[in-house]
């Protein structure tokens, strides 16, 4: 036997032994094979989880202790609590799902995860819409009766049962795949079953309507707010010019201050709308395309497609980004963060001494 023949024989024996061992292992207990395709989505979810939890906990603490109670602050705190739950529960669970290839020993786990996911997302959408409506009423109808902090807190509490009503169909309407040919035999594939039946289609249509309506409501509100703010600023400038035209010319500094205020309001409204749209638009496009054409825009198997895996979870960016928006536009919030960081480093130095 020459060297080449001997080498091929050894390789064949090793391969047969490995195959036999794997078959024995799989026959003894289910084995989870982790595909590298989901690494990007797993890293994305874990990053959202860590950054989002830290940022939103800071928002809750600072807004609760350092800010005067108002409807705006109540909505921000309520939104931050929801964001903490999304970042602290939904995103890590999504990571575990992908690590286990969506496979669990029982379908109950898959159903509970899907229901909780939908419920928290619904709560976030409702709170963002309520906060936008509150700002709309204050700016566009300042003389009318406004919402109080207690009413705002009550509305946030009411979003829980409302969100549950919209999310609970996931437990009963949605079916969970049971794939006997799945590589991890003995597990249940907990991806949502998109079988075309009237109930599933109806629920998909409802979800699409909610997403589209929320986007249009928020965009419409902030467009109206922007127009109102511009009209108010122009009115003040014209009024000041008419009042002091004969004796005093409106100072350039005052005009610059008003214009800077206008630009700041426009930036805030633009960023809030943009972040919301960017976060939810990808999954909205997938929903609409699937309902209209009856097929996926991208390959339906997120297990082997990292693009769809990230797109399906990109809404998490919205729940992570809110603290950065507050920090960028709210000088007081930035100062409180700066003071907190200094205290932490001071405590570390004192502890070392």
From TrEMBL:
Gene3D superfamilies: Rhodopsin 7-helix transmembrane proteins. SUPFAM superfamilies: Family A G protein-coupled receptor-like (SSF81321). Keywords: Cell membrane, Membrane, Receptor, Transmembrane, Transmembrane helix. Residues 55-326 form the G-protein coupled receptors family 1 profile domain. CDD domains: 7tm_classA_rhodopsin-like. The chain crosses the membrane at residues 39-62, 74-96, 108-129, 150-172, 201-223, 265-288. It holds the Pfam family 7tm_1. GO terms for cellular component: plasma membrane. It is a multi-pass membrane protein. PROSITE patterns: G_PROTEIN_RECEP_F1_2 (PS50262). It is found in: Cell membrane. GO terms for molecular function: G protein-coupled receptor activity. PANTHER family: NEUROPEPTIDE RECEPTOR-RELATED G-PROTEIN COUPLED RECEPTOR. This is G-protein coupled receptors family 1 profile domain-containing protein.
């Amino acid at each position: 036997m020459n060297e080449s023949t001997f080498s091929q024989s050894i390789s064949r024996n090793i391969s047969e032994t490995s195959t036999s061992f794997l078959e024995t292992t799989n026959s003894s207990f289910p084995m989870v094979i982790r595909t590298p395709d989901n690494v990007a989505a797993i890293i994305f979810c874990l990053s959202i989880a860590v950054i989002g939890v830290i940022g939103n906990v800071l928002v809750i603490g600072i807004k609760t202790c350092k800010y005067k109670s108002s409807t705006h602050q109540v909505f921000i705190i309520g939104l931050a609590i929801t964001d903490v739950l999304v970042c602290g529960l939904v995103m890590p669970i999504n990571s575990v799902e992908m690590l286990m290839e969506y496979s669990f020993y029982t379908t109950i786990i898959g159903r509970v995860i899907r229901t909780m996911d939908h419920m928290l997302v619904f709560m976030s959408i409702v709170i963002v819409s309520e906060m936008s409506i509150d700002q709309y009423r204050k700016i566009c109808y300042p003389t009318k009766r406004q919402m109080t902090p207690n009413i705002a807190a009550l509305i946030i509490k009411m979003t829980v049962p409302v969100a549950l009503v919209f999310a609970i169909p996931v437990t009963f309407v949605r079916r969970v795949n049971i794939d006997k040919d799945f590589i991890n035999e003995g597990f249940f594939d907990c991806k949502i079953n998109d079988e075309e039946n009237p109930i599933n289609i109806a629920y998909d249509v409802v979800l699409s309507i909610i997403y589209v309506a929320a986007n249009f409501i928020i965009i419409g509100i902030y467009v109206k707010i922007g127009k109102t703010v511009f009209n108010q600023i122009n009115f003040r400038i014209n009024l000041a010019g008419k009042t002091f035209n004969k004796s005093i010319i409106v100072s350039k500094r005052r005009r610059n201050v008003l214009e800077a205020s206008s630009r700041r309001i426009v930036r805030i409204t633009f960023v809030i709308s943009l972040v919301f749209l960017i976060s939810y638009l990808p999954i909205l496009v997938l929903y609409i395309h699937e309902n209209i054409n009856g097929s996926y825009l991208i390959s339906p198997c997120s297990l082997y497609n990292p693009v769809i895996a990230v797109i399906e979870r990109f809404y998490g960016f919205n729940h992570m980004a809110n603290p950065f928006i507050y920090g960028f536009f709210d000088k007081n919030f930035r100062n409180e963060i700066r003071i907190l960081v200094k205290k932490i480093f001071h405590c570390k130095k004192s502890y070392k001494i």
